[in-house]
Each structure stands twice: as structure tokens, then as C-alpha cells.
User: What shape does this take?
Amino acid sequence: MKVVFASNYFNHHQKFLSDAFYKRLGEKYSFLETEPMEADRANGGWTAYQDVPYVVKSYEPGGLERAEKLIGEADMVIAGSAPESLLRQRIRSGKPLFRYSERPLKQGPEPGKYLPRLLKWHWRNPPGKPVYMLCASAYTAGDYAKFGLFKGRCYKWGYFPEFIEHADPERLLADKRPASILWAGRFLDWKHPEVPVLTARRLKEAGYDFTMKMAGSGELLERAAGLVRDWGLEGRVLLTGPLPQEQLRREMEKSQIYLFTSDRNEGWGAVMNEAMNSGCAAVASRAIGSVPFLLRDGENGLIYEDGDTEALFEKVRGLLDRPEKAAGLGRRAYETVAGQWNPENAAERFLVLAEAVLRGEKQPRPFDEGVCSPAE
Assistant: This one.
């Protein structure tokens, strides 16, 4: 099978999934990069993964013709943020295509934009053509359903960062720092960095002995630092600044509890995969795109409703009261990623799903749960 993955640029979000495809397909797999990377991201290390054999750049001399040829001849195309001009002929000809999208309505319904979106999205995805959706959010299918799109053709997907296999997961759990809490991300309003600080204040007032690290930078960092000072949390909450990816993963592996406090603007949130891979007991907002796919509340993590800081506090307090419960959630979180939500399994399952589409199945259901199962 010839597979092309077309998106704006190649980076760490696609690297490990692409490696898994290339391992199976060899030269029959291509990642089509359709625009140069912005300078700030390139300078931030996103170009470190560019030297791989399967990346084709459509913006380089002769690249556009090669890109059109690849898309036209491919058995299957996955299209993320790619120009419609590259995809239009394939859709018109009735060749199958998988869109790849987070939720489109992060800002809510926005009624004034409904009709333009309806017309544009139906033009891009004509009824009767074999266009499917890989949902990089638990809310993607529901958002597109409001426009009458992709009914019965949405599948659970996501981002698949590097999976680190631990030969002895029990040792991973045993080596965690007791009563350790981690939060990581950009300090932006929709990631709500004030929430973990508030949780730390509540825990201190309740008499708990704990440590919390918050890794990252951003426009709200100084505000968070001010709250730490105002509430006398200097000995409990450490603002580390941004950490290199490898160091952040080491922090996850040493942390018992991981907090994920974003709202609906968090399309997926690959740190969720990474924290689970690291055996953390995650406490996460249901509004985050990855959470309903990855977490089963009370089984491999804990879920609270977005904005309910009281529920978040109670769940964290419960884990500090019962470290064996935190260890059990972390163990099952690791097993979820090791057995299901990892790049190797995603590539394998996608190829099975693609084969069913190529056989002519209109709404194939090769899997009942997990990656590539139907997204309701």
C-alpha cells in the first residue's frame, strides 16, 4: 500500500508515527511537508527531525509536481493542514482520503459563522465521496456532525509522541517521589496555570506535605509566580521554566501525580500520552481533546469537569491520602499507552482500516475500541 501523510510541516508530533509507517511500508510511505516552518518554531528545535528519508517538501524546486504525483498515485492519503489545491483532484476522482483534525469548534458554535462553514466544509468533503475523518479530539466527530459531515466515518485517532518502553514498570512506579505533583505547558489563559497553584494553596491549608513542579514559560508565568509568593507557597511550588523534552520526560517519570488543567482550546494535548507513558496518575479536565479517548475515570486516571476546581482538589487530595491508588492508576495508564495508544499500534491499525476502505466498505468497523475504532 502506498500511503502519503500531507501536512503543513514535519515535526515531533508526526515523527514517531511516520517512523512506524516507514518501518512497515518503506519507500511506499511519504510525509508531504507543504510549507516552510516558522522561524520561532524552527529555532525552538522543531527542525531536529528533518533529516529522514520519507519527507518530501512541496515548496522546494520541483516539489509541487512531485507532491501532486504522490497524492494522485497513493492508495491512501492522510491530510492534516494541507492546501485544498493539492487534494481537490483526488477527491473529485473518488479516491479515498482521510482528513486528520482536532475539533473545529474550539471557540464554541459561533452562529454567525455557521453558514460559511457549512458551505466551505461541504465543498471540501462532497457527499458520496469516500472522505473519512481521523479524530484528533474526542469532540471532533460531534463538531462536524453539527454540519452533517462524516456520519459513520469518524475514527478515534490523536497524536502519538514517542513511546518509551520500561522493562520494569513496577520499578518505574516504585522510584517516584512520594507526594510529587507535576504540571507542564505554556503559561497561557486557556491552559489555566493558576489552577494548579490554587490547588497547592488548598492542599497547604489542609495540612498536606507535597511538592509541585510547574514546567514551562509564557505570558502568565509572572502572574503564577506572584500567586506563589502571595500565598506563601515558595517551599511547595517550584516554577522550573521550560525544560528540554528529555528532561521533562524524566520529571514525569519521577512524579506521582500529573495535573492537566486546559479548557476546550486544548485540541489534543500530547503531554497526556507522555504522562501516562511515564506511569503518572493523571487528573485531567474533560474538556481536553485527548482525555475522553485516553482516560477511563477511576481506572487509569481521574477526570474532573472543566472549571470545577473543588473537584480537582478533592481528587488530588484523595491520591495523596491513598498513594497505592495513585500507583494503580499510574500502572494502568502505562498499560494503556503500551498496549494501545502508541505509534506502532496506530500505524498497524490504520493500515487495517485503510484496507477495509480500499475493499469498498463504506463505513468499516474493524475495531470496537481504541485507536481506529468509531468515534461517536
Summary: The radius of gyration is 22 Å. The chain has two domains: 3-160+342-358, 169-339. Residues 3-160+342-358 form a domain with the Rossmann fold fold (CATH 3.40.50.2000).
